Amino acid sequence: MFRQTAFGIALSTLVLASGLTTSPIPGHSSTNKPTHNQSVSIAANQTAAPTTAFNTTALEKSVFDKVNRYRVSVGLPKLSLNASITRQARIHSQNMASGKVPFSHQGFKQRVTVLPIIYSSAGENLAFNQGYSDPASQAIVGWLNSPGHLKNIQGKYNLTGIGVATNQKGEVYLTQIFLRTN
User: Fold this and answer.
1) Residue 120: phi, psi to the nearest 5?
2) pLDDT at residue 3 in the model
3) Per-residue confidence at 20, pLDDT binned at 50, 70, 90?
4) Could you tell me which of 114, 142, 107 has the C-alpha nearest to residue 128?
C-alpha cells in the first residue's frame, strides 16, 4: 500500500488494531472474554523512503517514554518496563511482520499466560504503519485518539513491555502489553 506520488510524497498508513483489555484475572489465567474495540485506520501524507531502516530498540524506548510522559501528564504513575513482557511483545510483532500471524490480537491469552508474572489484569495495544519517518510517534498519536487504546494507556497497570518489528516492505509493527500485578 506504499505509493509514491508525482510530488515525491509517500502515502503513509497507520492501522491500529482494536485495543484489547481483559477483565481482572485471578492469579494467572482468565475465564473472562477480552473486550475488543473497533480498529482505526489513518492515512496521511508525509515524506519517507520505503526502504527506511529503523532501530527497533530505539522505537521501543520511544514508545515507552512517550506513554509514560503521557501518563504523568494526566496524573498517573509511570509504568515499569519488564524484559519478559517485552520479549513476548517482540515475538508477536516479529510474527506479524513476517506474516506468520495476521495483524491482530491472535494469541494474546497465550502471550500473557506464558509470562512468569502473577497478574490481575492485562491489555494490549497494536499498531501497524508504513511510510512515516517516526512510526513510534504515529502509533502513540493514533492510540491516544482511540478510546480503546487510550483506556489501556490510562489503565491501572504497573508493568509493560513493548516490541517493534519491521520487514523489507518498510512495514512497522508495534505491540505494547500492559499488566497489573498485585
Assistant:
1) -105, -25
2) 28
3) low
4) 142
> Global pTM?
0.78
Percent helix / strand / coil, the chain, rounded to 5: 30, 25, 40
Helices (H), 74-178: 83-98, 108-113, 135-144, 147-153
Give the closest residue to 134 by CA, choosing from 84, 66, 32.
66
How many Å apart are CA 77 and CA 158, to the nearest integer?
Answer: 8
Whole-angstrom distance, CA of residue 133 vs CA of residue 145? 20
Length of the chain measured in residues: 182
Whose cell is 506513554? That residue is: 67
Distance (Å, whole) CA 114 – CA 106: 15
Query: 134 by DSSP, 3-state: which?
Result: coil
Q: Long-range pairs for 149-152 at CB < 8 Å and ≥24 separation?
A: 149/16, 149/19, 149/37, 149/40, 149/125, 150/19, 151/19, 151/21, 151/37, 151/123, 152/19, 152/20, 152/21, 152/123, 152/124, 152/125, 152/176, 152/178
Strand partners, 124: 20, 177
